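Researcher: Here's a chain I'd like modeled. Treat it as a single chain, no partners, no ligands.
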Amino acid sequence: MTVVAIDPQNALKRFLPHGREALIKGLWITRLTPGSSATGYVHFQPGSEYFRGHFPGSPCLPFHIVLETAHQVMQVAILSALSDEERAKFRPLCWRWDEPRLADQILPNEVLKMFAQIRDPQPLALTPESRGIKVIIGDCLGMKVVGEKRVFTGTAYFSLALQNKIKSNGV
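Model: Modeled as a single isolated chain. Structure tokens:
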């Protein structure tokens, strides 16, 4: 597998089907091995909307934002292996997280480094004959940049499904 050069600010827009509003603000993908792994960094600024109301006077990042950061980095690792045409046909669906754990709070002005690794990277070989579904399992590890303290671990289960096989309720 080859590490590729990417534009860290635009990798999310290029590879993810999310609207701009749903992307983690400030998440930069800094290392990418298509179909195998991705690394992203996000600096959670003190005035960030993510901290608003989450413990006024003692703010910390909500767990679901950490989980969504891991989710988006993993999707970049998966979808970067597909051509633009294939990305238009298939949608990644995260249907399970095994033992997602947050070991420490992420506070304002801290930087989170998220690493996503697909367990068994293989050519995706998605075809309509395969019923349009491919299951992909990957592990995520989140670290605080200062002190390299592990703050998040979890295993994600994704399916790549043909867009026309997804019902309106998402399954």
